[in-house]
Amino acid sequence: MHKIILFIFGAMSLLLTTQNQAVAQEPVRLRPAIVVTAPIVTIGDFFEGAGIYAQTPLFQSPDYGTTGSVSALSVVENAKAAGFTVAQKNSLDWVSVTRKAKLIKRGEIEASITAELQNRAQQSNAILTATISSPLPTPLYTDWNETNPTTLQDLQTNAATNRFVATMGLMQNGEIKSFQVAGSFQALIAAISLKHTLKSGEIISKNNLVEIKIPYRQYRARQLMTQEQIVGMAVKHPLPAGKAITARDITQPTLVERGSAITLFYQIPGMRLTAQAKAMNAGGLQDIIEVMNLTTRKRLFATVTGQGQATVVTKTNQFAKLQKAQ
Questions:
Q1: In degrees rounded to 5, what are phi and psi of residue 116?
Q2: pLDDT for 157-208, tens place per residue?
Q3: Helix (H, G, I), strand (E, B) or coil at 253
Q4: Residue 214 and residue 24: Cα distance in Å, rounded?
Q5: Residue boundaries of the structural domains of the chain
Q6: How far apart are CA 159 and CA 181, in angstroms?
Q7: Is the pLDDT reported for residue 251 higher than 50?
Q8: Which residues partner with 185 through β-bridges?
Q9: Is the pLDDT of residue 18 over 70?
């Protein structure tokens, strides 16, 4: 029995010696400064050529985003105690250890809250935005390699005041730690506005327009216009930049001015006759205006169909007879 124990002890000693010899074959050097991302600092973090001891833990890492120093002698002594007997401090007295971490910014948290508000929104065309007003725990760090560091655990909202309180979860050292933030939210809607002020009667082009975000409640009862509906229309009254354009602000451009001479078309089944007329009032495309035939002096109503043009549509040939008699 005694021989067996001696044999086992000798074998273990030989194995340990062989392992350290294998390590010693690689250059072993204590690094003067290291950067780690894990909560534990290992022999491999401290030493080059750590070999099979590379993953052996030695010390706890500093706090997220901070740098600390550890005695080189302490590093060597702990490494040797862990079996890495070839550890040497060389000429170093201290080793700098930095804990690399990911900083969570306010905007990331607001984005999570905004996404949840958007999911809850009853107005499909509303754009929700959340703004945190309460101070954040400082600083908000998580593991450098964490891909999903924050989660929204709970969100309480008050529609009357547009305020919210959110409980967030933050992943730190493999555990989720909760914290709360408070702030306000706003429902916005996309609208079309002018880049610069236009005068009454000016025609709106695509280059005049820009998209803006406005409070949803402010315009939900009004008819907002799309860019396609606005382009080519005329401004009813002086319209400033930055104001959402509604149906009240625009009109068809004036194609016929009051008192102007126009071409009057008589659209009759099988033929189209023309005459010169005077516009008794102004009108835009498809507006019905009163005109006076300059030949017959007769007044009638016609539809504006173009610049300086209007059309009378009839199912009879009475206008043709009048024209032939003249």
A1: -70, -40
A2: 998 899 999 999 999 988 899 999 999 999 888 899 999 999 988 999 999 9
A3: coil
A4: 70
A5: 2-99, 106-187, 189-251, 254-325
A6: 17
A7: yes
A8: 130
A9: no
**Amino acid letter for position 281:** N
Fold category of 189-251 in CATH: Type Iii Antifreeze Protein Isoform Hplc 12 (3.90.1210)
Give the C-alpha separation, 89 to 75, whole Å.
Answer: 8
Angle at 306 between CA 302 and CA 310, to 5 degrees: 20
pLDDT, one tens digit per residue, over 81-136 is 999 999 999 899 999 999 999 999 999 999 999 999 998 886 667 888 999 999 99
DSSP alpha helix (H) spans, the chain: 2-24, 43-46, 72-81, 106-120, 216-219, 227-230, 318-325
Look up residue 296 and give its two tokens. 């017959």
- Quickly name the fold that domain 254-325 has: SH3 type barrels. (2.30.30)
CA triplet 237, 243, 244: central angle to 5 degrees?
Answer: 100
Residue 261 pLDDT greater than 70, yes or no: yes
34-67: pLDDT as tens digits: 999 999 999 999 999 999 999 999 999 999 999 9
Cα separations in angstroms, 89 against 25, 53, 182, 264, 305: 17, 17, 51, 104, 95
Q: Dihedral sign, CA of 232, 233, 234, 237?
A: negative
3-state helix, strand, coil in the chain (%, to 5): 25, 40, 35
- For the segment 219-236, the average pLDDT, to the nearest whole number, is 83
b/e map 206-225, b = 16+ CB within 10 Å = eebbeebebebeeeeeeebb
Give CA angle at 181 (126, 173), nearest 5°.
Answer: 115
Per the CB < 8 A criterion, the answer to whether 215 and 237 are in contact is no
